[in-house]
Amino acid sequence: MKGGKPNGYGTCTLASGNKYVGEWKNDTRDGNGTYTYANGKKYVGEWKNDKMDGYGTYTYAGGEKYVGEFKNDKRDGNGTCTRTDGVKYVGEWKHDKMHGNGTLTHANGTIQMGVWVNGVHKK
After folding, report:
1. Are 112 and 103 a contacting pair, CB within 8 Å?
2. Rounded CA gap, 13 and 16, in Å?
3. Buried b (16+ CB within 10 A) or exposed e, 32-51
4. For residues 109 and 88, is the Cβ–Cβ distance under 8 A?
5. 27-62, pLDDT tens digit by residue?
6. Is the pLDDT score of 2 beyond 70?
7. What are the C-alpha distances in Å from 8 to residues 18, 49, 52, 108?
8. Of 32, 54, 60, 113, whose CA is between 20 and 30 Å from 25?
């Protein structure tokens, strides 16, 4: 605690069952930490001003996983998203959508390479 606010390393468990274990700065998640949601989702990575920001791994309740860069709680930068149905995208993201150069591999082995704009493949 510093000035009555969490600073440094600590744990916060909410009434909802969500739990954060990691670094704090002026009462906000800031630095490295793990946020585990009661519904099974989990984020392990960097935080800035109480938001996922930097490099991290987000695992969805159904098993889908994103490993890469985040900005303001959204997938943003380079990253890999692997879905439970075997579909995998490796490439650039912006505002939580495939955006920029990337490669999408479908479960049947078909590969789409190129540029995506707001989640849509452009030829």
Report:
1. yes
2. 8
3. bbbbbbeeeebbbbbbbeeb
4. no
5. 999 999 999 999 999 999 999 999 999 999 999 999
6. no
7. 20, 14, 17, 47
8. 60
Give CA–CA dist 33/60, Å, rounded.
17
Of 29, 33, 63, 64, residue with least CA distance to 48: 29
CB of 21 within 8 A of CB of 33?
yes
Q: What pTM did the predictor assign?
A: 0.93
Q: Determine the pLDDT at residue 42.
A: 98
8 Å CB contact between 11 and 18: no
Write the pLDDT tens digit of every residue in 86-119.
999 999 999 999 999 999 999 999 999 999 999 9
CA 83 – CA 71 distance, rounded (Å): 21
